[in-house]
Amino acid sequence: MEINVKIKPNMRIQAFYLFFIIVSMQIGVGILGVPRLVFSEAKQDSWISILVAAAYVIIVLLAMLLILKQYDNADIHGIHRDIFGKWLGKIFSTVYILYFAIAFYSVLLTYIEVVKVFVFPDVSNFVMGLLLISLTIYGVLGGLRVIIGVSFVFGVLANWILFLLIHPALQIDFNHYLPLFQAPFVDLLKGARATSYTFMGFEILFLVYPFIQNKNKVRISSLLAVTWSSLLVLSATMLAIGFFSAEQLERREWAVLVLFKTQSFPFVERFDYIVVAELMMVVVPSLLFLMWGLTYSMKRVYKVKQKLTLYVAAIIFLIGTFFFEKHFETQRVINFAEQFGFWFIYVYPFVLLPLVLLKKRLKKRKGAGSS
Amino acid sequence: MRKRMKRSSKNVFPLKIDELEQLMKSEFDKSPDLSFSKYEHQNKKIAVFFIPYQVQPDRVENLLLTPLLESKEEWSNTAILNKIPLNSGKEYQQMDEILPGLIAGKVMIYIEDEAAVVSYDFLNKEKRSLEGAETESVVIGPKIAFTESLVTNLNVIRWNIRTPDLAIEEITIGKRAPREVRLIYLKSLANDTDVDTMRQRLNELDVDNVEDSNVLMQYIEDDSASIFPQFHTTELPDRTSYAILKGKIAVLMENSPSALIAPSTFFSFFESTEDLYMRWNSGSPLRFIRFMSMFISVVLTPMYVAAVTFHYEIIPTQLLISIGQSRAGVPFPPVFEALFLELMIELLREAGARLPTKVGQTIGIVGGVVVGTAAVQAGITSNILIIFITISALASFTAPSYQMGTSIRLLRFPMIVLAGILGLIGIMFGLCMLIIHLLKMTSLGRPYLSPIYPIRFEDLNKALYRLPQNFQYKRFISLSLKDSIRFSKRNAKEKKDIDE
User: Fold this and answer.
1) Which among A280, A335, A342 is positioned nearest to A24, based on CA atoms?
2) Which is the most buried residue in A193, B3, B38, B215, by most CB within 10 A?
3) A144, A11 Cβ separation under 8 angstroms
4) Inter-chain CB proximity A14 and B454 less than 8 Å
């Protein structure tokens, strides 16, 4: 396995799309439930928590970019190979692959759960799983260009649902935000920790970085993406806190979805149904990228054909949907994904960064000594 | 067969006139159409042979036979070619050149003991005259349509694009029954890779015959499994030359009244030349209406089915009451009701397309008005659904390309079934599948959904809407043409201050 990836010229993508890649990975079903999670820790000071979390995400992102900059055109698997050697590197990469699998599974189950709660209480997991997984297979078979296209087109198309939030936004009670600065520092951090599942997804940068043509635009594009998703999460949380009273909010698992119920037109009511359907457009790009990450990583690390991984993983996930029918089971998967992702996405780059810098310095010294 | 081919590729000349007659008779043994006449002139035997209905008899008489027989001098091949200076004079030596030549309306002259046959082209091809477009009718702008004659069509195109820059390449397609195909593009504009791809696809086509350019399209398109057409076929010369001038490639085929335009994008199928002739601020909304109606046509009936079957909560109470009253007597689930009505509309359309125009109109009235009213009164369908079905059928007919309109109309059926099974989730699944499919498609190797993905902001003003002409100083960037500037931006109007 080479450390640096050679990309065919027709597979290169513009950094412009990185914005949509990262936003579509970050904004998924997580945003629907995040207000309650943050609120139960930080109460009306949730906005501080989210700002703290966003700042932390940006720091992690900058660290990731710094790591990637040390190489010509490497992805995370190449870096693992370079830093940890053949076998240890493979183990770390395998953990990454496992992360993609678990994240895929948690997104899949969460969307099925939302559909069950809001639209079809009796729909079987298998049918919904079949729909989503067949979309995933069909999309991933198109390759990275198509997946990025999906994230871009769906990312633009799904934005109309934001306009439906204008109506609830006009009915906010500003007293819900007061008094300011009440939460102790620990609670604020706990609140920030609660957003970790929602903000996950920017780690895809570690994989798509070699594909990007204009590397000088990567930083601005990814920073804008993270800022935009942070803004969305922040406004969703603020809306939910302003609209619902404290005990209402704590009892509503998907508070943001409930907000859509208030909007109505002479010909359509109950927009939550439509929004849940529209959410498929938000969820599918995440699923596609996670599945692509899984198959591409398998190809990079173990030289398995992507098609083989795709079909096998799809069948396993489809069978897997049978075993997590209940709410608490789904919740367990999400919690596990969150735990796993937290250490892997938010902490691990800071372990990798000094190692990469050290290795580079050693190499430089060696090069200087030999010449 | 193989034996005969071998023999005819051999040079049989020189030979006696009687031997030639025997040979020709044996070649044409199953079709007694060959006219083989022998003359004696200045002690030399001359044979003239041709297929009478493939040539223009009076021209043959006046231009060829009269000078041939009335002359006093002795004829030889060179003498004939010199004395009868029609530009199509040629010498042939091989049988497999002579036989297709006879079929293509050539008159052959053989002088005994010469080494070759002299031929002149007198092709008489029956054709209809240029008429107005039938399937792609336009309100303003040129109205003539292509005919079945390639020469006429080329004439029209040449007259539209009067520049030597226009390349018209000749390619022959089909093994058993060959047809001429022309590849037309602007040398200084069209992308070389695209032209090469197209030429290669046409040259490598290994089929025994191709019926029409619509069939040709199916042979050479990128993804034959897709429901969407990947090349545009049009019967408007106007539209074809517009596409050529934009840097695209056109393919014309003998005996086919439609041209093929490549590469095409999804959005170009909703583009009518009328948009250009209208002013930009009335052309853009018209195009927008077409996009809207495409969406409506795919989604409206499925939405109704989904709402009435599963999610009646999304219908406001006032509306729900009227829908409920209208549906009260209907014994079928909404899916069947919708499928039944959609099928009826398709029947009407199909019957209307097959029948003569006058009868077709009657059928439309009988089918639409009488059966529709009767179906509602009999309690089989609801009024409101009929309204939705009619709107979506109308919407599907707004697509300027008939092929695209048909694809969209057919897409409704799986969407209705999906809506009937899984409601809004099913519709969304269908839409997602559709968009992913469109993203995967290519036309001549170029993305089908361009310029949306990959996004080219400069192209949006031509593909999705139109701006005034002085904003359109660039050609489509996504086509990567040799010259993408239409005119200098400086020539566009300068800004002025208020006039005092």
Assistant:
1) A280
2) A193
3) yes
4) yes
* DSSP assignments along B350-414, one per residue: HHHHHS-HHHHHHHHHIIIIIIHHHHHHTTSS-HHHHHHHHHHHHHHTT-SSHHHHHHHHHHHHH
| Burial class of residue A366 (count of CB atoms within 10 Å of its CB; 0-12, 13-18, 19+) | exposed
| B430 pLDDT more than 90 | yes
CA distance B432 to chain A (A): 7
Chain A contacts of B455, Cβ < 8 Å?
Answer: 16, 152
Cβ of B428 within 8 Å of Cβ of A280? The answer is yes
SS3 B451: coil
Residues B448, B264: Cα–Cα separation, whole Å: 7
Reported as a single tens digit per residue, the pLDDT across A96-137 is: 999 999 999 999 999 999 999 899 998 889 999 999 999 999
- Long-range CB contacts for residues B166-175, cutoff 8 Å, separation at least 24: B166/B244, B169/B199, B171/B199, B171/B202, B171/B203, B173/B202, B173/B205, B173/B207, B173/B210, B173/B216, B173/B253, B174/B207, B174/B208, B174/B209, B174/B210, B175/B206, B175/B207, B175/B208, B175/B209
Q: Which of A31, A33, A30 is nearest to A250 (CA)?
A: A33
With an 8 Å Cβ cutoff, the interface of chain A facing chain B consists of: 14, 16, 115, 119-120, 123, 127-128, 131, 135, 138-139, 141-142, 146, 149-150, 152-154, 157, 264-271, 273-274, 276-278, 280-281, 284
B284 is written with which tokens?
A: 């853009």
> With an 8 Å Cβ cutoff, are B425 and A120 in contact?
yes
∠ Cα B433 B437 B443 (to 5°): 165
CB contact under 8 A, A115 and B425: yes
**CATH superfamily to which A9-363 belongs:** Amino acid/polyamine transporter I (1.20.1740.10)
Tell me which of B370 and A94 has the higher pLDDT: A94
pLDDT at B7: 47
Residue B435 touches chain A, beta carbons under 8 Å = yes
Instruction: Using an 8 Å CB-CB cutoff, list chain A residues near B302.
Output: none
> Which pair of structure tokens corresponds to residue B497?
């201050």
For chain A, the maximum distance between any two Cα atoms, rounded to a whole number of angstroms, is: 79
The answer to whether B394 faces chain A, any CB pair under 8 Å, is no
Q: Does the distance separating the beta carbons of A274 and B424 come in below 8 Å?
A: yes
Residue B36 sits at φ, ψ, to 5 deg, of -120, 105
Structure tokens at B239: 């539209």
pLDDT in tens, A292-323: 999 999 999 999 999 999 999 999 999 988 88
Domain ranges of chain B: 2-121, 150-264, 279-446, 457-486
CA distance to partner chain A, nearest, from residue B446 (Å): 12
**Between chain A and chain B, how many beta carbons pairs sit less than 8 Å apart?**
91
Rounded Cα gap, residues A97 and A301, in angstroms = 9
- Please report residues of A whose CB lies closer than 8 A to that of B437: 138
Q: How confident is the model at residue B3 (pLDDT cuts 50, 70, 90)?
A: very low
Report the complex ipTM: 0.94
Question: Which tens digit of pLDDT belongs to each residue from A36-78?
Answer: 999 998 888 999 999 999 999 999 999 999 999 999 889 999 9
- Lookup result for tokens 């009687």: B18
Rounded distance, CA B359 to CA B368, Å? 14
List chain B residues with CB under 8 Å of A123: 422
* Residue B453 contacts A, CB cutoff 8 Å: yes
